[in-house]
Design brief:
Blueprint (H helix, E strand, L loop, with lengths): L18 E7 L8 E7 L6 E10 L2 H8 L14 E9 L11 E4 L9 H4 L26 E3 L2 E3 L11 E5 L3 E3 L6 H4 L5 H12 L7 E5 L3 H12 L4 E5 L5 H7 L4 E3 L8 H8 L6 E4 L4 H9 L7 E4 L13 H5 L3 E4 L7 H13 L9 E6 L3 H9 L5 E5 L3
Parallel strand pairs: 10-11, 10-13, 11-12, 13-14, 14-15, 16-17
Antiparallel strand pairs: 1-2, 2-6, 3-4, 3-8, 3-17, 4-5, 5-9, 6-7
Helix pairs in contact: 4-5
Family: Belongs to the zinc-containing alcohol dehydrogenase family. Class-III subfamily.
GO molecular function, one term: S-(hydroxymethyl)glutathione dehydrogenase [NAD(P)+] activity
Pfam families: ADH_N, ADH_zinc_N
């Protein structure tokens, strides 16, 4: 597949009208996706309609798909890590025109609220932050329908559809030199890991780092720490096959908890003369957050949690871990202000300064999207890139 070969000539010639296209629809928690014909409404003011080019499966898609959260948000179209081409724009949108190449953003940036105008205090926009209700930010309704019945969105993106509608603040224009079937990973997982190392933890040269979970996010943390000059990067994972892959991203030591006589935190403390300078929880296991804290050194140890928990969302830790100087920080999208900062990551990718392609372990056609879910659940992939059929 050509990396970014697509043109406006392949668009559905229906600007401003309803588009009928294929989408992978989840009808219930854990149920296989069904490829359905959906109607995609035209963009309202401040919105874009995007022809999705490539979309990769993120662990958080799987977590939400398996969730029995109440009220149930089904039928639903998942997917949020995607690249595409603008098909049409709503009233008042001047930043984008038809044919622009874009990445979708699961958290947006309005550029004007108190949070957006803050320098580095936060990247969570007050207007376009994480959307959890399965609707559009604009008017709290959906743009997807099947035979007139509404279908819920996911993370204000829903990229498992040949066309989708997003708020203009939830997309960023990128260089047309960037291969759309690769850089889609920068709209979530890879950027999240790099940012956790650079923006949230601010890893320093010569420091020691422990990373719990060596999936796409964990490996991206590792390369971020390597680029910053960390002297020792310890990767923790129960899958021994991750060992060799991790070395390419900067991991110097690999620990499999299933092969230890003591605890992980005891081993890391022994390896690092009392604890790592930084630790990162990239699994989505709140009990592992405590382990990561215990693996940090007294005085200045920083633990960053990135994973989305599948169960037990509450974090518990003995106060002594914090009163002795450790810091626990949360990270959403690595602290990047998405519209402001992502173009610089694209530039780094085009200059071969960051690794993205090596995180793609599978390329699948849209019709095989359930295979991507099976591979992710079985722990047999890093990122599956799904190539749309239109």
């Amino acid at each position: 597949m050509s990396s970014s070969s697509s043109s406006s000539s392949s668009f559905v010639k229906n600007p401003g009208g309803i588009i009928k296209c294929k989408a992978a629809v989840a009808w219930g928690a854990g149920e296989a996706m069904r490829i359905e014909e959906v109607e995609v409404s035209p963009p309202l003011p401040s919105e874009l309609r995007i022809k999705v080019f490539s979309t990769s499966l993120c662990r958080s898609d799987v977590t939400a798909w398996l969730s029995n959260a109440q009220p149930p948000l089904f039928p639903r179209i998942f997917g949020h890590e995607a690249s595409g081409i603008v098909e049409s724009v709503g009233e008042g949108v001047t930043e984008f025109v038809q044919g622009d190449h874009v990445l979708t953003l699961f958290i947006g940036e309005c550029m004007s609220c108190k949070h957006c105008v803050s320098t580095k205090k936060t990247n969570i926009c007050q207007q376009l932050g994480l959307e959890r209700k399965g609707v559009m930010h604009t008017d709290q309704t959906t743009r997807f329908f099947i035979k007139g019945k509404p279908v819920f969105h996911y993370c204000a993106v829903s990229s498992f559809s040949e066309y989708t509608v997003v708020h203009s603040g939830c997309a960023v224009k990128i260089s047309k030199d960037a291969p759309l079937d690769k850089v889609c990973l920068l709209s979530c997982g890879t950027a999240a890991g790099l940012g956790a190392a650079w923006n949230v933890a601010d890893v320093s040269k010569g420091s020691t780092v422990a990373i719990f979970g060596l999936g796409t996010v964990g490996l991206s943390v590792a390369q971020g720490a390597k680029i910053r000059g960390a002297s020792r990067i310890i990767g923790v994972d129960t899958n021994p096959e991750k060992n060799e892959k991790a070395k390419a991203f900067g991991v110097t030591d690999f620990i499999n908890p299933n092969e230890l006589e003591g605890t992980v935190q005891q081993v890391i403390k022994q390896m690092t003369d009392g604890g790592a300078d930084y630790s990162f929880e990239c699994i989505g296991d709140t009990e592992m957050v405590t382990t990561a804290l215990q693996s940090c050194c007294d005085g200045w140890g920083v633990t960053v949690t990135l994973g989305v928990p599948k169960t037990k969302p509450e974090v518990t830790a003995h106060y002594g871990l914090l009163i002795t100087g450790r810091t626990l920080r949360g990270s959403l999208f690595g602290g990047w202000k998405p519209k402001s900062d992502l173009p610089s990551l694209i530039d780094m990718y085009l200059k071969d300064e960051i690794m993205v392609d090596d995180l793609i372990t599978h390329n699948l056609p849209f019709e095989d999207i359930n295979t991507a879910f099976d591979l992710m659940v079985a722990g047999k992939c890093l990122r599956c890139v799904i190539h749309m059929s239109n």
